């Protein structure tokens, strides 16, 4: 069994803590006691007593006033919480059911063979995505800590939190560039005629054919929606050997607007983002169902849908397809980015996250399928009109959604402008929901590390720097950089850190201890499904796939072209910096650990700190008693 069963020996007494002042001051250890008011020893399965908690600092958790904007850092009594449990649920849905589903999922499915990708994706969601989602929800809610301080549970791998922050930051910067594209299309949708509906001589070439018309196509034809996106919106270049060019001022203004909206969404913390979630979580479904209804009515739509759901069994033996399925599940659920831990840390201690995990993961799966059916029905129609195979109808890449969705909008017979406005408004709200959750996690981490700086200033600094970094994506070579960062920053980094995270909770802290804590908090017995996934399937399958991917390394390409060597080098540096947080913070943890010898210091960082556990005094006392009763 990959876990250890811990308990307090009968002879161990737990002195009571004495409250001083009001709850804003936290509590101090009773001066008459030389022992801290936290469980100091637990037993293994054979009854042997092993020290597993470090002594907490004498002023834990609040002998001094600690202020993180409007978020108290250590005082669990005053930690900001969601106004209502439904706001937490909707915020998680808005973050998880977002661009990862509507933009990235159809693209990844198309690039990996449609039905060849769908089956691995559904398997991964069931046995990896959902269990990890619930695990991260539980970590945050039980401890009321963000994605870095939660690693008081295993100080040796605190670097996971900082590595996730780097991966999250790289994703957020290009998420906002996608939001900028939606703003641009939203504005263009108010034209009398949708500008991508017909070929405009200003940007179209001889191979362009109108998206709204019925014409004879050749095998070199491109729809007007595709040429509009590549030639007019992006002004995309064929290679980046000579650089990526300068930012497009139109897209730069749209990017600025996106970050301004994000700033006002985040500035008040969960109190403001929770209210926004009522709209961002529910509105997209109305538009998606409308688009799906139009898509399936088009000639050839059935062929596209069949391509999407028809399994190609031989592809199941390709680890690269499984790797794509895993990274996509992390994106669509936002697993491994730290944001789920942060969101749940604002919950009440007994929030039913067991139910929430099922609701959110099912909503995420259904939304991905909804977006997939919509996109592939449109691709089927394009294949029908172009007299081509679905797999060859358009190039893959991050721009697929900005080609297929507008192409469908161009075929609406009645007021296509209205549907275009609604669709791009929906896409923007999805972006806000996703980016707000991920950026909010970064803000929380920084606030935790620099509690004296007001949250509004940290939020402003994050948004300004995010805008400046995002300018690289609105250059003619921006889509090249986006795909590169997506592979190294959002994919590889998160993949590696999730493996370490899973091993840390289930093999170092101990799966039995984690399940015990969940039973104390939620009052439910977790079944064999969760234990099998956490202890065996997730670490073994992820490690096996990763080893194969590293041995048979296939670096990303763009439109079938390889990147310059300097681009690959930058990608590996980005991944190296994030994964390098593990040894850096391990070294730091050992350096500050208590112990007379190096060996004692190393052992101590693999044990929970004395400050690990429920932050509220009432919950902590009950937890300590619960542990004692497990003897």
From TrEMBL:
It is a multi-pass membrane protein. Na(+) binds at residues 97, 101, 332, 430, 434. The chain crosses the membrane at residues 86-103, 115-133, 166-187, 249-270, 282-309, 321-346, 358-379, 418-444, 456-475, 487-509, 529-551, 571-593. Keywords: Amino-acid transport, Disulfide bond, Glycoprotein, Ion transport, Membrane, Metal-binding, Sodium, Sodium transport, Symport, Transmembrane, Transmembrane helix, Transport. GO terms for cellular component: plasma membrane. Residues 1-78 are annotated as: Disordered. Disulfide bonds join 199-208. It is found in: Membrane. It comes from the Eukaryota. This is Sodium-dependent nutrient amino acid transporter 1. It comes from Penaeus vannamei (Whiteleg shrimp).
């Amino acid at each position: 069994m990959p876990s250890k069963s811990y308990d307090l020996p009968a002879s161990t007494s737990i002195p009571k803590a004495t409250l001083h002042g009001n709850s804003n001051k936290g509590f101090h250890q009773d001066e008459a006691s030389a022992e801290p008011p936290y469980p100091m020893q637990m037993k293994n399965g054979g009854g042997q007593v092993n020290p597993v908690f470090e002594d907490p600092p004498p002023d834990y958790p609040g002998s001094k006033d600690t202020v993180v904007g409007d978020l108290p850092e250590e005082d669990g009594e005053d930690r900001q919480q969601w106004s209502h449990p439904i706001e937490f649920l909707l915020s998680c849905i808005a973050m998880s059911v977002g661009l990862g589903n509507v933009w990235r999922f159809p693209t990844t499915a198309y690039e990996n063979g449609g039905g060849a990708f769908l089956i691995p994706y559904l398997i991964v969601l069931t046995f990896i995505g959902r269990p990890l989602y619930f695990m991260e929800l539980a970590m945050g809610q039980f401890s009321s800590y963000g994605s870095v301080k939660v690693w008081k549970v295993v100080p040796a791998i605190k670097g996971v939190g900082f590595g996730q922050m780097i991966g999250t930051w790289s994703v957020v910067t290009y998420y906002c560039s996608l939001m900028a594209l939606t703003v641009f299309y939203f504005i263009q949708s108010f034209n009398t005629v949708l500008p991508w509906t017909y070929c405009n001589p200003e940007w179209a070439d001889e191979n362009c054919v109108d998206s709204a018309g019925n014409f004879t196509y050749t095998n070199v034809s491109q729809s007007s929606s595709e040429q509009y996106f590549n030639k007019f919106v992006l002004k995309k270049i064929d290679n980046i050997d000579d650089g990526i060019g300068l930012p497009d001022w139109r897209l730069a203004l749209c990017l600025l607007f996106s970050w301004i909206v994000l700033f006002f969404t985040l500035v008040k913390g969960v109190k403001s983002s929770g209210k926004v979630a009522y709209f961002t979580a529910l509105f997209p479904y109305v538009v998606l169902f409308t688009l799906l209804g139009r898509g399936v009515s088009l000639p050839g739509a059935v062929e596209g849908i069949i391509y999407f759901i028809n399994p190609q069994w031989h592809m199941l033996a390709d680890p690269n397809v499984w790797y794509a399925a895993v990274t996509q599940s992390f994106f669509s659920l936002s697993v491994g980015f730290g944001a789920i831990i942060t969101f749940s840390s604002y919950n009440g201690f007994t929030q039913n996250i067991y139910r929430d995990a099922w609701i959110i993961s099912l909503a995420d799966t259904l939304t991905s399928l909804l977006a997939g059916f919509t996109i592939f029905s449109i691709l089927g129609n394009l294949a029908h009109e172009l007299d081509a195979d679905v797999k060859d109808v358009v190039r893959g890449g991050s721009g697929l959604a900005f080609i297929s969705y507008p192409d469908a909008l161009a075929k609406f017979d009645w007021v296509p402008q209205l549907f275009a406005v609604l669709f791009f408004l929906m896409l923007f709200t999805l972006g806000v929901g996703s980016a707000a959750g991920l950026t909010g996690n970064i803000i929380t981490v920084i606030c935790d590390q620099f509690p004296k700086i007001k949250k509004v200033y940290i939020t402003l600094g994050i948004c300004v720097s995010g805008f400046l970094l995002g300018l690289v994506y609105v250059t003619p070579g921006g889509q090249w950089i986006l795909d590169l960062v997506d592979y190294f920053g959002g994919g590889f980094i998160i993949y590696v850190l999730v493996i370490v995270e899973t091993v840390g909770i289930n093999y170092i802290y101990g799966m039995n201890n984690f399940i015990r804590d969940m039973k104390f908090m939620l009052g439910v017995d977790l079944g064999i499904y969760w234990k099998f996934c956490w202890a065996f399937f997730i670490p073994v399958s992820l490690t096996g796939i990763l080893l194969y991917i590293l041995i048979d390394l296939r670096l990303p390409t763009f439109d079938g072209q390889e990147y310059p060597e300097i681009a690959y080098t930058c990608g590996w540096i980005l991944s190296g910096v994030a994964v390098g947080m593990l040894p850096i913070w391990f070294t730091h943890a050992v350096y500050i650990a208590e112990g007379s010898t190096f060996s004692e210091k190393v052992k101590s960082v693999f044990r929970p700190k004395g400050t690990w556990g429920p932050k509220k005094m009432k919950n902590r006392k009950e937890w300590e008693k619960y542990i004692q009763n497990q003897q």
